[in-house]
Amino acid sequence: MLSLGAHVSPLLSSPPHAPLLLYSRPPSRSPAAPAAAASAPRSLCFLRRSRSRSRSRFAAGRTRRPTMAEAISLEAGGDLYHDLGSAAVTAGVALALLKFFEELAKRGVFEQKLSRKLVHISVGLVFLLFWPLFSSGTYAPFLAALAPGINIIRMFLLGTGLMKNEAMVKSMSRTGDYRELLKGPLYYATTITFATSVFWRTSPIAIALVCNLCAGDGIADVVGRRLGTEKLPYNPNKSYAGSIAMALAGFLASVGYMHYFHTFGFIEETWYMALGFLAVSIAATLVESHPISSELDDNLTVPLTSFLVGILLF
């Protein structure tokens, strides 16, 4: 009895997990077995967790959204392709318009002076209509300026005699001399290229430059030749009718394009801007009617005046 109590008393005084040892394997066998048995489930859990993590990473990689830098680069690339397409359309329309007037000159539909002025009025104003096609990207104004920029090269090649095109020379010169293209037509293309690439569609100066050059100066010659019986006292080659028509045409065209670009959100439509356009058109008309403008060239003095007065007002 004493020996049995001696054997039972250690069992009762052992820790709570000790009775489990009575039903487990004898400790005489490998003591590492319980550790291996305990470690096996942990390794399986680790494998399952690692597989689930890899699957979640794979799924996240498939559904990952582009970063801000990637989104900006994609948007910039899309704008570039869009602007290249817009530049191609604009250049195509400008060239088609020039070809149209070349054909009219070949067929003698209009007299040479009227044909030249129709080209002068229409090309620049139609070009402005296509500015909203372009995006707000950095390269948009430069790509838009490709069409008049190409025309600068054409005027230079035709004016120097390196390229021959009698129909174009006839539709754009006063006397049919190809060397005239190095003056008025070259200044014309340079002005539109400058207004497009430097000021663009958010500036009233660009509107004033193109509208007073195209609408103002072009209408002045057409009206002056037909209704200009009363000449100006300081210049017998200019008339009251032509000068009034120039101021009105330049002003109305400027206000019209102010409203046009305002509908696209490019420019703010205000009375101050409208009055500024009126002041620019009057100043350009006064300079155009002066004899010095005939000595130099209307296509140089009119946009130069519009630029200087526009800088002061806008």
UniProtKB/TrEMBL annotation:
Compartments where found: Plastid, Chloroplast membrane
GO-annotated cellular components: chloroplast membrane
Main localization (coarse): plastid
Keyword Disulfide bond: no
Swiss-Prot/TrEMBL keywords: Chloroplast, Kinase, Membrane, Plastid, Transferase, Transit peptide, Transmembrane, Transmembrane helix
Transmembrane segments: 80-98, 118-134, 140-163, 206-228, 240-258, 270-287
A GO molecular-function descriptor: kinase activity
Family per record: Belongs to the polyprenol kinase family.
Protein name as it appears in the record: Phytol kinase 2, chloroplastic
